[in-house]
Amino acid sequence: MPDTLRPKPHLIRVWDPGVRLFHWLLVVAIALAFLSSEEESAFSAWHIPIGWFAALLIAFRLVWGFVGGEHARFANFIRPSQIGPHIRHLLSGKATPSIGHNPLGALAVLALLALTAATIATGVSGGEDAHEVIAYSLLALVGVHVAAVLLMSHLAKDNLLLAMVTGKKHADRYPDAHDAAPPARLAVPVAAIAVGAAAFGATRVDPQAFAPHAAAESGERGESEHGERGEIERDED
Length: 237
Known about the structure:
Helix content is 65%, strand content 3%. It is an all-alpha fold. It folds into two domains: 9-206, Transmembrane di-heme cytochromes, Chain C (Fumarate Reductase Cytochrome B subunit, Up-down Bundle), CATH 1.20.950; 211-237. The termini are far apart.
């Protein structure tokens, strides 16, 4: 049959723009955080600002989990009672497509949010050993999450990565599904207030939270060296 005569697949809206933007910005933030983590990195001056930016993303997602679109809301996808049946289906070789996050995917979302927040917290508190351990645990979880998404896309015949880009899925895989309910009417201003409050809190903890820190560190070293030279001169006098 010619392509012009083939009916176009019906698509249904699943992921709202807010949750998609959060998802890909967090991917970028985590990647840049690891690229900038070494002192020799060309991005090292941006490591701390990137961490604070990730904190703003976490603040946004926590709020969006209550006011965002239907499948972005925690109440919609956190279903502990369905974890067991979902695992049994997977072990039996069956993969029932899930219009939103499947039960294990929901756990991955919560774990990624928690580990990202813990990485930021240990970075702020100066616990370098804990920060490194948690950061690498986060990286490992990201790897597991990507592998699981690819596996589920194959088993369920559903391109989950593409859906998180377009926000849509093929309706023929979900015959009883409908377009997701949109975010709440005041979702955007509420989320903006939350992000603004988080940004203000970040600057209270670190006044240079969103500025490259190399200059500040050089200044601190310069002040330290100046102080040491002053002490030496006084001792010589």
